[in-house]
Design brief:
This protein is α/β, with parallel strands linked by helices and 341 residues long. It has 7 helices and 15 strands. The strands form 3 sheets. Strands 5-4-3-2-14-1-15 form a 7-stranded mixed sheet, with helices on one face. The N and C termini lie far apart (74 Å). It holds the Pfam family Metallophos.
Length: 341
């Protein structure tokens, strides 16, 4: 092929100006569609999903043979500010479930004026035996935060703040006056419906306030079940509790990831827990790390992590991760595998 014919063919293949304009319009329309979809997702997460409160139910085989089922209501991460009446009413109405026990894993407040509102929210549930630990938001008021840090850094702390400006002592006093037990660095025994329970709890590991060594020790031999309770499910605490014989660990903090991608799941747990355990029931054993529950040894403990009821007022949205409370039905070991009702 001579040079003239080659140049002619190359010239004929050049896109026409009109074609380029069409490509530009297509790209612009595509970008607009993506932006519109993103805006719709943000609007859904802010105006709709964060108010779609959901009750989860799981059956967990952790009791001795012959024990009657025990119904445990797990509430976490209420993050209440005055005036959030929809959230308050939904949680208040959980008392109609008539649980045998309530476990509250912290982050109840997101306002220095929230204590009376929290007490009103749990008013009827406070008539039920209960235990609780505190979370970082029970100590420190919320401040603006870049939500991308949760994804890029994997966790977010409090930037060296040391002045606890939330009325946490008032909150603790209110719960204790109604009969709930503060498990912060404490072991506690209680019998519920004939089941002898031992609890062991720590202060919030997210703030590195946990001192498990102060309560470490083998699970009580005469207890039917030892339950570890912590706000944030950091692996060092899970390992220590389970190594001492806890058969069940209950935690919150993760918000279930708060913003999840359909088909992928949580982008972060805001701690060193693997995303596969960001919410719901799973197995844990010392050194489990990111290994799946399917790899658990027979004597592995059970763990429940709540996706929580609220969110920081600085991040008022949820996506593909509804706010929740959980009713755990504890049944004898050897029963069918844990199930979601």
């Amino acid at each position: 092929m001579d040079t003239r014919r080659l140049l002619t063919r190359l010239r004929d293949r050049e896109p026409r100006p009109g074609a380029l304009a069409g490509v530009g319009r297509g790209a612009a329309l595509g970008a607009a569609a993506v932006a519109g979809a993103g805006a719709a997702c943000v609007a859904w997460g802010h105006f709709v999903e964060r108010h779609l409160y959901t009750l989860r139910r799981f059956t967990v085989p952790v009791l001795p043979e012959g024990a009657l089922p025990l119904r445990v209501l797990h509430v976490s991460d209420l993050h209440l500010v005055p005036g959030q009446r929809r959230r308050m009413q939904w949680v208040h109405d959980l008392a109609a479930l008539e649980p045998d026990l309530v476990v509250n894993t912290g982050d109840n407040m997101s306002s220095t004026a929230a204590v009376p509102w929290v007490m009103a929210t749990f008013d009827d549930l406070l008539a039920t035996p209960g235990v609780f630990v505190r979370g970082s938001n029970d100590y420190f008021s919320p401040r603006p935060v870049d939500p991308l840090k949760y994804v890029t850094q994997g966790r977010s702390r409090y930037g060296g703040r040391t002045q606890r400006d939330m009325p946490w002592r008032e909150l603790v006093a209110g719960f204790e006056e109604r009969g709930w037990v503060d498990l912060t660095h404490r072991r506690h025994r209680i019998e519920v419906e004939g089941v002898r329970l031992e609890f062991v709890g720590v202060d919030d590991p997210h703030l590195e306030l946990d001192d498990y060594a102060s309560v470490a020790g083998p699970a009580a031999r005469d207890a039917d079940l030892t339950i570890g309770v912590t706000h944030a499910p950091y692996q060092r605490v899970l390992d220590a509790m389970v190594a001492d014989g806890a058969g069940l660990v209950i935690a919150g903090h993760t918000h279930g990831g708060q913003v999840c991608l359909p088909g992928i799941g949580a982008l972060t747990t805001n701690c060193d827990l693997d995303p596969g355990r960001v919410k719901g029931v799973s197995r844990w054993w010392p050194g489990a790390g990111s290994r799946p529950s399917a790899a658990a040894p027979d004597d592995a403990a059970w763990m429940h992590v709540s996706a929580g009821l609220g969110h920081s007022p600085m991040a008022p949205y949820r996506f593909a991760c509804r706010p929740e409370a959980t009713l755990l039905t504890l049944v004898p070991r050897g029963s069918s595998s844990p199930s979601a009702d």
